[in-house]
């Protein structure tokens, strides 16, 4: 019996209850379409889509939207955009279906995006608290600058960004993936869990980074390590690929790593 798009999506969603109005949709195929090959990536960039087609996949599982907006209804200004049109046309002609694994992914327990990052940082055994949107870990004492260098090396990143006191001693670290590094998440996390440093993907630069800078200026040193949105969530999508590879041994399953979206000049 053929494995269908519906089968793969059900495997990914696990036992998470139905999420009304979810952003997790299948584009480019019917649910009953047989799957011939699966590619998994964080971002469905033009390059990633072309690689998936070259690999012979007809299902691409991604975490973010192909069209530069979290919700389709917020992207009406892109309806006739030439970049979007080229991408839509390429997908239609290639026969590659795209499934966004975002809302259900973050509702799973444990969240594979968080688990993947912690595993890549070798911090799984150091977790003291796993919260709905964050993890609290205790690491061997080191300076904030040393912790930044450690994360950069473990994740093979070309750069990271550190604000606060680079020489402060850090042991208690909060981990926030993706866009969860904003003040509403990170600032209470610092206070409630007595953190030395927060490692986050990204967030508004006028919120947590400025809070951390002021705290350091007031003699209450804290640090924030921003590693990038994709850089914080791609390890989790690699774990999703491993999950599918283990579940569907009869199908080719490929993980396609992305390239950094920014260059430091």
From TrEMBL:
Keywords for the protein's UniProt record, in alphabetical order: Hydrolase, Metal-binding
Binding site for a divalent metal cation: 63, 111, 229, 233
Gene Ontology MF term list: hydrolase activity; metal ion binding
Keyword Hydrolase: yes
Superkingdom assignment: Bacteria
Keyword Metal-binding found: yes
Similarity annotation: Belongs to the GTP cyclohydrolase I type 2/NIF3 family.
Protein name: GTP cyclohydrolase 1 type 2 homolog
Organism: Paenibacillus methanolicus
């Amino acid at each position: 019996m053929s494995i269908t798009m519906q089968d793969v999506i059900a495997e990914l969603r696990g036992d998470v209850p139905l999420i009304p109005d979810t952003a997790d949709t299948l584009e480019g195929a019917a649910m009953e379409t047989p799957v011939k090959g699966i590619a998994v990536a964080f971002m469905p960039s033009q390059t990633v889509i072309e690689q998936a087609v070259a690999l012979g996949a007809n299902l691409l599982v991604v975490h973010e939207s192909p069209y530069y907006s979290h919700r389709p209804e917020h992207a009406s200004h892109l309806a006739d955009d030439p970049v979007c049109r080229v991408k839509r046309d390429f997908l239609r002609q290639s026969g590659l279906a795209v499934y966004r694994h975002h809302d259900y992914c973050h509702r799973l327990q444990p969240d594979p995006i968080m688990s993947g990052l912690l595993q890549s940082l070798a911090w799984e055994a150091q977790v003291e608290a796993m919260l709905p949107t964050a993890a609290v870990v205790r690491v061997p004492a080191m300076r904030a600058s040393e912790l930044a260098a450690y994360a950069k090396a473990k994740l093979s990143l070309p750069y990271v960004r550190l604000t606060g006191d680079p020489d402060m001693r850090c042991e208690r670290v909060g981990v926030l993936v993706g866009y969860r590094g904003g003040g509403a998440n990170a600032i209470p996390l610092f206070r409630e869990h007595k953190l030395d440093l927060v490692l986050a993907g990204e967030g508004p630069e006028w919120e947590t980074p400025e809070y951390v800078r002021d705290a350091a200026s007031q003699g209450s040193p804290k640090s924030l390590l921003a590693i990038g949105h994709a850089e914080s969530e791609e390890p989790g999508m690699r774990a999703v690929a491993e999950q599918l590879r283990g579940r569907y041994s009869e199908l080719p399953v490929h993980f396609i790593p992305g390239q950094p979206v920014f260059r430091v000049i």
